[in-house]
Amino acid sequence: MPELPEVETMRRGLAPLVGGVITAVEKPRCGCRPISVRPGWPRLKSGLLRRRIRGFERRGKRLILLAEPEDQPAAPLARLVIEPRMTGLVSLDDVPDRQHLRLRLAVQGAKADQLLFWDRRGLGTLRLFADEVTFEAALGRQRIGPDALECSLADFRELLGSSRRAIKVALLDQAKLAGVGNLYASEMLHVSRIHPATACCELTAGQWRKLYAAMRDVLETAIRYEGSTLSDGTYRNALNQAGGYQNQHRVYDRAGENCPRRNCGQILRIVQAQRATFYCPGCQKLRA
DNA sequence: CATATGTCCTGAGAGC
DNA sequence: TGCTCTCAGGACATAT
Q1: pLDDT digits (tens, 9 = 90+) for A60-79
Q2: A61 part of the active site
């Protein structure tokens, strides 16, 4: 499940495409239901064809391809927004199977010659925006919170602090803060010793500081490890290699194991807002 | 406005 | 062994 570290790893892996020109936009034949493509394949094709890839950006869990008209660098930049959601991934090279290949861009004049988007479950989406105005209207700060790694401590506390929701649930709200998903939310709460059910408005200033530091540490470390590849093996980097952070998980998917802090307790699995949460009842108490 | 819930999707794994 | 069922959690539509 690609969260911020996985999508950032994908973004970095696509660097060899920068500077190339898109020479074909292909919708592969695929036996399963088609993914959501807006505003449809014809406009996706015409909007990307013969455009030069200026670069790749990331906003939360979304990956953004910037494309400029080949001979008009001053013209508006089109943006292809790729949302991997649960099982989507990008690759320069190879994908787990042909059956769930969703998009292929052929590219000339760069170090790599194609971009593949693969998504087994098909919850991922592709969206094309013709210019910055339409892009910001759909994915700007009015709709989506600041990226978790571009957010100051003061903003972090301002955005989440007054909520009565459980902190674990609030961390997943992309309208407030973009990039944190179910896996890393549990991890950063364990690092900062905060019980996942604590109401945001009950957290102390010291806990906000610890949580903020833990968020940065967990996300940055996970990026260094190139993300987490879970037991289903779905997530891969752009070279079709597994990530390494799954071996560093402290609590996620480790119910029943001993807490990595010694003499602490056994990790519990609970459900919050229909999502699994993992924590240690020994070192993550409800009261500060 | 804030918060909660239902929905989509596929395949792995459990249980019989 | 082969069938049915549950579950995983991204984002968003809809309800309260």
Answers
A1: 999 999 999 888 878 899 99
A2: yes
